[in-house]
Specification:
Blueprint: H1 3-9, H2 22-25, E1 32-37, H3 46-53, H4 55-69, E2 73-79, H5 83-96, E3 101-105, E4 108-109, H6 114-122, E5 137-141, H7 142-152, E6 159-166, E7 172-177, H8 182-188, E8 197-201, E9 208-211, E10 226-231, H9 235-240, H10 244-253, H11 260-264, H12 266-269, H13 276-285, H14 289-293, H15 303-308, H16 315-328, E11 350-351, H17 352-358, E12 371-373, E13 378-382, E14 392-393, E15 400-401, E16 406-409, E17 419-420, E18 425-430, E19 434-439
Parallel strand pairs: 1-2, 1-5, 2-3, 6-10, 7-12
Antiparallel strand pairs: 4-11, 6-7, 8-9, 8-10, 13-19, 14-16, 15-18, 16-17, 18-19
Helix pairs in contact: 1-7, 3-5, 4-5, 4-7, 10-13, 10-16, 13-16
The chain binds iron/sulfur cluster (2 copies).
One iron/sulfur cluster binds near residues 257, 309 and 313.
């Protein structure tokens, strides 16, 4: 079986982003494979943990990718402050004799944005609205590399290393089966340290926010790397609770056109024609479709609303709203890069430590207390875990499954991923969207 098919059979999707099926991303004989090991969301340490624990496996996967897919160069991009992890990776590279480079960056946000990391490593700008392969580059996350290694060994993606931090008793990395409830992960980290709290799935900048009542209904998927428990009174939930109408009214009436949002926008600073201040102005005047179309270039990193804007406005939310309208209407503009914009970039990088202070997260640890396993009595496994179509259920209620068995199928040509049982047990519910498995080792 060739490597892309092994990766497909292992159910590997991008672990650090939207969950694009990895086998679809791998282009033969591309110039450069970049491994994104620059996790930049404040408080998250999952990729750092994976690097420290699985350096040999990561290098094994990259060696296979280089030789079988013909990448001319392979570079791991990580933060220079990860001293111990860098040492471990260097030892693994040296032991394998592999021709793999390390690129060390400063710790700023959002260095883990793949287009920002590409600019850091190569000095090149991905064409606005385009994808890295336009420059002959493929980018994968470091946890994806570990999953590729497992796929080569015939294993599938059944677990995820998740940072569980904030208001929990024992902030740590939790090894959770796919489909474990967030509640089980929080319990594995000693439980919530507060009675009333909210949940962030992902990082504080780009993560999704939920109320405490959703603790049991939320489950871990292949793309979830973080759970942060925060007090109800924290500034983040208040910020995100604003209704869209209020956000749009504020954009029209309160924006002072200081343009700080544009000055600090990471996509503007790599040369993309994205000026959030101009998008804000256009929502007020509604006269310039070209300016509104710039919203399509927004990566939703959150710098403009959570760091830049002195008026506490939400250019990101405005961009998301406008993007939705433009896509609905099939608008596909052509953009041009402006290299002149990049000259101030080095002076405008936002240190992660400064961001942590700005977000009022300094009381939470950036180093975690090791790794614990989460062993829930049941899992609810979504049949869609990333970009693409739902997989088709391959099991029915009453079936006995072993961890690693296929429970949802897609075709190799599809954009989607094969889904596997993450624990052994009995299927107790199955529909087009979710398979529930009750753990029952003795029945096997
Ligand atoms: S930073 Fe805020 S006030 Fe200034 S231009 Fe941007 S949205 Fe308007
Ligand atoms: S969220 Fe704001 S800062 Fe980030 S890319 Fe979009 S416009 Fe730029």
């Amino acid at each position: 079986m060739d490597l892309p098919r092994q990766i497909f059979m292992g159910g590997v999707v991008g672990a650090g982003g939207a969950g694009f099926p990895t086998h679809k991303k791998l282009v033969k004989n591309a110039d450069l494979l970049i491994v994104n090991a620059a996790e930049c969301e404040p408080l998250l340490c999952s990729d750092k943990f994976v690097m420290s624990r699985f350096a040999n496996e990561i290098i094994g996967a990259l060696t296979a990718l280089k030789s079988e897919m013909g990448f001319k160069r392979v570079v791991i991009g990580t933060k220079q402050k990860y001293g111990a992890e860098i040492k471990t990776l260097r030892a693994a590279i040296s032991a394998s004799g592999a021709d793999i480079e390390l690129f060390l960056t400063k710790s700023f946000y959002p260095v883990g944005d793949e287009q920002v990391l590409i600019y850091e490593i190569t000095g090149k700008t991905v064409p606005p609205g385009g994808i890295p392969i336009a420059l002959g580059i493929v980018v994968i996350n470091v946890t994806t590399a570990l999953n590729i290694y497992d796929a080569i060994q015939g294993k599938s993606v059944t677990h995820r290393y998740v940072t569980v931090t904030g208001e929990v008793v024992n902030p740590c990395v939790v090894r959770a089966p796919i489909g474990a409830s967030v509640s089980a992960c929080v319990e594995a980290a000693g439980g919530a340290a507060l009675k009333d709290f909210m949940i962030v799935m992902g990082g504080p900048m780009m993560g999704r926010q939920y109320g405490k009542s959703q603790l049991d209904s939320l489950v871990i998927t292949k793309t979830d790397g973080g759970i942060i428990i925060l007090p109800d009174s924290h500034c983040l939930p208040a910020f995100h609770a604003k209704p869209l109408e209020h956000i749009m009214n504020q954009a029209r009436s309160v924006c002072i056109q200081c343009s700080y949002c544009t000055d600090q926008c990471p996509r503007f600073l790599i040369g993309h024609p994205l000026h959030p201040n101009r998008v804000m102005r256009s929502t007020a005047t509604n006269t310039n479709p070209e300016m509104l179309a710039e919203a399509l270039l927004c990566s939703e990193c959150g710098i403009c609303e959570l760091h830049a804007c002195p008026m506490r406005l939400s250019p990101r939310q405005v961009n998301i709203h406008i993007k939705g309208l433009l896509r609905k209407n099939g608008v596909k503009p052509v953009f041009k890069t402006n290299p002149d914009q990049t000259s101030m970039r080095d002076y405008r990088k936002i240190a992660q430590s400064r961001l942590i202070a700005r977000l009022d997260l300094t009381q939470y640890p950036t180093r975690l207390n090791g790794c614990v396993s989460c062993e829930p009595a049941s899992v609810r496994i979504p049949l869609r875990q990333g970009i693409g179509r739902n997989s088709i259920p391959a099991v029915s209620v009453g079936d006995i499954v072993k961890a690693g068995d296929v429970i949802g199928r897609v075709e190799f040509e599809d954009v989607g991923s094969v889904i596997h049982a993450s624990v052994s047990g009995i299927v107790t519910a199955a529909d087009a969207n979710v398979i529930t498995i009750e753990r029952e080792e003795s029945a096997l």
